[in-house]
Amino acid sequence: MTSTEGSATRVTRRRLGAVGAALVFVALAVWVLASAGRDDATARSPLLGQPAPAVVTTTTDSASFDLARRKGSWVVLNFFNSTCVPCIAEHPALVSFVGREALRADGAEFYSVINDDSDTAVEDFFARRGGDWPRLRDDDGAIAVAFGVAKVPETWVIDPNGFVRLRILGAVNEGDLESRLDVLRGEQ
Amino acid sequence: MNRGNAGRRRTLSSWPAWTLVIVAAFLLVVVGGSRDRGPLSQQERIEQIGRRIACPTCAGESISVSRATAALSIRSEIARQVIDGQRSDDEIVGYIVSRFGGEVLLVPRASGVDALVWALPVAVAVLLVAGLAFAFVRWRRQPGAPGAAPRVPRWVTVSVVGAVVVVASASGWWVARESGQRLPGQTLSGGIADSTATLLSQARALGAGDVTAAIELYGRVLEIDPDNVEAITYRAWLVSLSARNFERALRMQAYQAAVAAFGRAIELDPTYADAICFLGIIVYRDGDDAPSALEFLDRCLASAPPAEVRTLVTSLRDEVAAAVGE
Amino acid sequence: MFAAGLTSPLGRGLLLVGFIAAFFGTFAAAVGARRSDERTLRLVPRFAVVAVACAVGAFAVMEYAMITRDFSLAYVQQVGSTATPALYNFAAVWSALEGSILMWLLILAGYVAGAGWWMRRKMTDPLVGWAMAIMFATLAFFFLLSFGPANPFALGAPGVTDGPGPNPLLQNHILVMFHPPILYLGYVGMTVPFAFALAALIVGRVGDGWLATTRRWTLSAWGFLTFGIALGGWWSYEVLGWSGVWAWDPVENASLLPWITGTAYLHSVMVQERRGILRVWNVSLLVATFSLTILGTFLTRSGVLNSVHAFSESDIGGWLLAMFAVIVVVSVVLVFLRADALRANGPIESPLSREGAFLVNNVLFAVFAFVVLLGTVFPLIVEVLQSRQIVVGEPFFDRLSVPIGLVMLFLMAVAPVLPWRRSGAAVVSTRLAIPAWCGVASLVLALVLGAAGWAPMLAFGLGGFSIATTIRHLALAVRTQRARGFVGRANGGMIVHLGVIFICIALAASNGFTRSQEFDLVLNRPVEFAGHSFELVDIYESRDSRSISVRAAVKVDGGRAYEPAITRFTNVGMNVGTPSVRSTITHDIYLTVEPPVRPTSGTARIKVFIKPLIMWLWIGTFVMAAGTALAAFPSRRRDANAVRDSIVDLESDDERTDRGAVAAADR
After folding, report:
1. Best label site of B72, C203, C419, C445, fewest CB within 10 Å?
2. Among residues C392, C413, C443, which one ends one of the domains?
């Protein structure tokens, strides 16, 4: 026969235990909710190290372009749009990159892929801000989908064997692309 | 008349009437349930697939709902593949996931941590129902006697609880398996381009290092796609490179074959610079025909070849030009 | 008319005074209640008056700034524009974070003042005092939010003369005037019953008096919440252009969660009133409902998840999360302190009784709430545990909520005929006989009309079954009570059920049997689809100060032309598609036009959706609203003993029969 005192302590202990459990649960919930936030986008992709997707399209000068035919060169694809703010911001860095690569015998080929924009707007963009490399049309966004590009700007580097080696999300900083390409060339 | 009403009600609520109603309902549900709704139009199929994929820039909306650029592009791609008809729904979803990553999957996966989102609610439901059943049993046992200790032996309680937990987990796992997204394996079916692209890049990577293996890979590409210009060109090139070490007769044979191959490549695609470049090179090296070689090399340079080939050609061109000049 | 420079200090000043009033009101009410000091307690309504005056004043100042396009304020720079029409400009105040917190504040202050006035004669009761204290504390929190992190009166960059206006999606349809305020009336309204529940725990009067007192508050808040959610669905259908009504978006889920627990509470509380059990559960449901409103606001406003509604992010997240934690911890501690008084162990005689049905109902809604909560929060959990992003979307929620909906339909069919306190096995077969045949009839009808698939068939069958039961209850009530057979809790509740059943059937039909097709229509060449003809008759452009619209006029069945459009809002650079819908009682024909479309090309890509029974969603909503209003209507003259009143409300014809039968058996 349990004493009333014993059962009272049991009840109190059980109650305290339950309160404790509830507090732990709330703490966990708060921890989960507080620490989850949007990270900076990491440059992962299921395509890294894989052969580049097929890209067959035309340039704004109506010349044909086939990515597979460019094997033998480093190829840099830059997805952009003439109105997106980071695209405008990174443009000078791209101009200097292309200038530098033009001086090398094994210089990388640079192409801009137009993402949801008109030819005229793009030509206007280049006329005003400089740069004279081929701009590739991407009607329907098929190339963007093939690379898994959702937001511009994005820059992709493909090695001379046709494998995807690098993905940069967001605007490219001055000198950044050059140094990363040098690292990749060194590894080759 | 009240009598009549009561009599009618009694007939309707008698067990034969109830059996009839239950059987009729069951049959109707089965008939309707197994009825085919007819084929989906292409548009409906696209919508259905779209509802399983999230718009990558909107976080949460499916591409069937969203109007964002990325969503529209993916919808176009899905439309293309649906019209093409080669891939199943799961494969199309798998393709999009293979490009955008698992983050665009709106249907949680059938396995792994993701499956918990399916399994937990089902398990919780089973546990709560079991708890309710247990409560009812307990109330049935001692009506109006709160707090009286149940006389059920411990092992019965433990085994019942154990059974309930097992049923809960099993149903959770089963629902996750049935409803979760299962993605097809790494290799996706359909499309010549997909299979040859890998082989071509692999062959390219082997390149000068392991010529035999590379030639074999190009051969495999040509089995799949006999008109693949890159494979034709580079196999011929590698063969003629390796033929350098042979005796003259074989070298000449290799040379003829290579010229034929390059010629075929140029015929298939006149804009393919590499073929023209290689043709120029071997015409000079093995064919001793400097003027033709120069012509080919100039054509090659005008076709904007990639860097590796261009480096080869520019260094050679001066030599060829000098040879022509003599 | 005062200088623009005064707007910000005036607004902030009002918020500060309001905060002080709420702060001191909390203490006055708490101290007065604790010491049972009547004089202090009588002061409490004054604080409420000051607080509500400040809230109204601050909101008025904000509206004034918006209407006069006072671009000195950062908020007006964000959502104001010279080009936005007056009506949408007025609604622009609640189109982003700071303004919507201000609206929450306004409505909460209104409720607090309303509660203070309604309880003015009972203000000296410690229970009421503590309830007011808790309401003031919540009000003070929101004043603080508005003064601090979500400051709508912050000064913006100087020299700005125009702004982008609210999100173009919010400039498209008049519903933006109604959906957020009505939803907030529901959301915020849950504060009052919550405050009374906690007050009851603090004071130790955990009997049912406070329940009866707040019954109508809870019901009306729930009613507004229901209506607000339905308006959100209507908005999604009319504006967003994907032809659906519910996308299981995180914000939609955030508004659904308190609704689920609120509905569970409204049902479960009837068991408590009759049998005095489930008190801990009911208090927990109320606490859950209120804390879910805070959690929901956190999830949608902190930017932790993104959705169609995510118009801005700010550091308000931490505050809301802290508030949520405080509420949960305080409530849990209080419940456990009073656990002895709350716990009542009445056995329930049979699972086939009304109490048993309500218990099953509780389990059902608990599972439903868990599904929605887990699905909404799961991406966060996975992100924290595994550092990768996943999305849990429509397919998950649809798949799991279908069985829940079906069980809900079944319960709605069976529960109303079950008696209290004893097993219904004897009477169920009699009372459900005709409804069962109605269910079979609806199955036949569904088959004839072309239904297919397990879930829809079950939905239609159970729908017919439950409609029959509901109408039976109402018919019996009307037969004995004439017009009063439509009012009161039981009867009003049955009408609400009728609305719910309509909605369930409409959802089953439209989700399962929508047909769609895309056409490249050429001018004056009709196409046939699903028994209708569609002919493009015109493509034209219309401009106004803020947008360029391209409209495609499509004649349906040779009748009037419907004009879906694509509108480009020039100053934001955003395209918005507007659908055009022909609604009839049997189905809707939903038309959208896909980009790109040009007036000169002579062709337009038109998407046609044939959506069955959509109209019944809105009919069901109005039936639910009517039922809620009727349920709040007293069915007997107001009695001093409100508890007895509410029990009598519940009695249906069946129950009188049961009571008579029990009495006869006892004799």
Report:
1. C445
2. C392
Interval C563-572: pLDDT, tens: 999 988 877 7
* Minimal CA separation from C248 to chain B, in Å: 9
Closest partner residue to C458 (CB to CB) among B22, B29, B135 is B29
Residues 62-91 of A with CB under 8 A from C: 83
- In this structure, the answer to whether residues C268 and C401 fall within a common structural domain is no
Decide if A32 and C381 are in contact by the 8 Å CB cutoff.
yes
Residues C467, C589 within the same domain: no
For residue B269, the SS3 value is coil
Q: Which residue has the tokens 């200088």?
A: C3
Phi, psi of B175, deg, nearest 5: -65, -40
* Closest among C515, C564, C565, C526 to C543, alpha carbons compared: C565
Question: What pLDDT digit, counting tens, does each position of C522-549 carry?
Answer: 998 899 998 999 999 999 999 887 788 9
Size of interface A-B (CB pairs under 8 A): 110
Q: Are residues C253 and C354 in the same domain?
A: yes
Instruction: Tell whether C577 and C501 lie within a shared domain.
Output: no
Same domain, C79 and C153: yes
Q: What is the DSSP letter of C28?
A: H
Residue A1 has pLDDT above 60, yes or no: no
8 Å CB contact of B125 and C513: no
Domain count, chain C: 4
pLDDT in tens, C53-91: 999 999 999 999 988 888 888 888 888 888 788 888 888
Q: Residue C145 is which amino acid?
A: L
A26: closest CA of chain C, how far (Å): 6
CA atoms within 13 A on the CB side of C602: 4
Q: Is the peptide bond before A160 cis (omega within 30 degrees of 0)?
A: no
- Number of Cβ within a 10 Å radius of residue C445: 13
Average pLDDT score over residue span B119-123: 93
CB B60 within 8 A of CB B112: no
Chain-centroid distance, C-alpha C56: 24
Cα→Cα distances B156→B131, B153, B159, Å: 15, 6, 5
Of C213 and C491, more confident: C491
Query: How many Cβ pairs closer than 8 A exist between chain B and C?
Result: 186
Whether the CB of A30 is below 8 Å from some CB of chain C: the reply is yes
- The CA distance from C318 to the nearest CA of chain A, in Å, is 7
ipTM of the prediction: 0.85
Give me the sign of the Cα torsion angle C415, C418, C423, C427: negative
Reference C278, options C265, C296, C259; nearest CA is C265
Give yes or no for A106 touching B (CB within 8 A). Answer: yes
How far apart are alpha carbons A124 and A132 in whole angstroms?
12
Residue-level length of chain B: 326
C382, C415: one domain: no
- Which structural domain range is residue C199 located in? 177-392
| Shared domain check, C366 and C224 | yes
Q: Which residues of C touch A35 (CB under 8 A)?
A: 384
Calculate Rg over the CA atoms of chain B.
36
CA-nearest of C195, C257, C193, C197 to C225 is: C257
Per-residue b/e over C65-87, b at no fewer than 16 CB within 10 Å?
Answer: bbeebbbbbbbbbbbbbebbeee
**CB distance from C390 to chain A under 8 Å?**
no
Which amino acid, one-letter code, is at B55?
A: C
All partners of chain C with 3 or more CB pairs under 8 angstroms: A, B
Measured between CA atoms, the residue of chain A closest to residue B54 is A150
Question: Cis peptide before A153, with omega less than 30 degrees from 0?
Answer: yes
Q: Which residues of A touch B57 (CB under 8 A)?
A: 150-151
- Chain-centre distance for alpha carbon B193: 14
Which pair of structure tokens corresponds to residue C544? Answer: 């106004």
For residue C305, give Cα distances in angstroms to B92, B300, C381, C489: 27, 55, 12, 39
